[in-house]
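Subject: sequence -> structure tokens, single chain

Hey, anyone have a minute? Need the predicted structure for the following. Not urgent.
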Amino acid sequence: MNSKYFTKRFLIIFLIFLGIVLYLNTFFNEFLWDDDDIIKNAYIKDWRYIPKCFSQNLISGVGETSNYWRPLLLLSFSIDWHIVGPQPFLFHFHNLFLHIISAILLFLILERLLKKKWFSFLVSLLFLIHPLQTEAVTYIAGRGDPLSVFFIFLSLFLFIKACERPLKKWYFLSLFCFVLALLSKETAMVTPFLIVLLLLSFQEKFFSPNIINSSKKERLKEVIFLSVNRLIPFFVVLVIFISLRLTILNFHNILNFWPTPNIYTENISVRIFTFFRILLTYLGLNFLPLNLHMERNVPLETSFFSFPVFSGFLVFLAMIFFAIRSFLKYLPSFSSSLERGNAGLKTIRRQNCLVPRLGGGILPRTERTLPLEQSERVEKATSRAPFYFFGIGWFLICLAPYSNIFIPVNAIIYEHWMYLPLIGIFICAVHFFENILKENGDTFKKILILLLIFYLTFFSLKTILRNREWRDPIVFYNQILENSRSHRVYNNLGNAYSDIGEYKKAEEMYLEAINFDPSFPQPEAYNNLGLAFYRQGQYDKAIPYFEKALKVKSNFIPSIINLADAYFRKKDWEGAREYFLLYSKSTPYSFYPYFKLGEISFYEGNCAESLRYLEAAKEVVPSGDKEFQKSILFLLEEAKKCEQQIKH
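Reply:
Had a minute. Here:
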């Protein structure tokens, strides 16, 4: 293709344009699934809670506890909330903005490393348009992926820049971006390992010729030593982060995200066997993304000789084999060329990565005189990177946090866990087809290019259609139930029906959730069934379900709130006071229990106590919540009048 027209700037603009076109139909999608933890989160609604974003877990602002600590993610939601409030448009736009910028950064990183514009563009294009990405981009609560990946890519880009320019600031900016990535999502811990992968895969870019042209053994030794040296600050940050997460920022059990022990969490062999099974699923979804849906059901594997497990193990071995073979073929690429040519001389300067090194200073600039023919081969070798080593390494490094092998996380498989790893798969795939194009005639090339256009079109259309399945909760949850079932999907579909007043359908879904697995009762389903009766004014029917939820989980905040409100509606002041007091102790940052306690005291004629509670509510009510501010101020005035009348 004519590079005169298809410049880097044009390709970047094309990525922006295509990203907007593919995700335009998401801008007016509704909140769903865990988005409730955003719009109900007190921390994002008032700037005074910013310190709590850094000291509490992700959903502490809704009175819940999780293992996640993502302060920068909460701050990004807070920015959206303060601009538009509970309107989904800006939240969706923010997600898409991060996704497009990440695709552009990926293009710039690969082009800088490979000097292959079209190769880099195609990998970035696949990253941008792949239907699997919708679970991270279209889903508002999935922002942790595009936000953390944005900072990961920025860190990698600045690290590469630090190796090209004699300025320490690029290195420290790279380190700072790594910190921001960790504050966005814990899986950013892979960043230093990705940098190691870059250093090993593109040695001629990061190391001086005297290292590159040494013997294979000596070269590998020096490369590993200098790589570790350059990354000491990154690993220091990583150790500090892990230490904090294991101690003062360990909100539940950071080493096991599952609420109860089971065969999966208690047996590493089961987790390994199951990983081999889902490895095949992930690879299949990368190349043929059909029947995409949340909440996938995966059977646990207890035997190595199960066909899916053994097949996955063979695929894993094949990946390791091709990665090592690719790397070993790459190692002698420079030294072998040196042994052959000796005509002409040319002095080349190649600069080491100018970053802090152990013992102070920076890695020095080196100069070496090489024969002209040999120096040309050195330049050619720059484009002969170990693509399979790089791609497979990228895939496995980025997948490692989600493998469940080391730490059982909150699920076995999710599509958005491929957000970053799929880049590695497509680096390998694009390199494979690039070699096929080189080895065949023009007719075959044209056929292959047409097939590629068809494939990319399929991905694009699939992304648009998948976005439509996220448009509202009822469509979304029913689409999941067509593919798999779980108590959580039934419960959430019940919420969707309840929100539009279809209480009979809601009750059916809640009962399905309750009966899905009686051995593991779910407080959410009991609570929401009670809430459906509450909304119909049937408080006596609602209260027993709220109480059942609390029997399952004694500190379940939603049921505590609902019980308090139900007793309040019945004018049972004693029952309402009991649960509002419990609520205020569980979530002292919330104004609501203080406001309601102030109301109860006022109705009982205890004006002094009412004033005390209302003053407490006034102190913590979010500045943006104008309606409740007015209600609190009005009741305060009434309580003051009441108190004055009593005194007189």
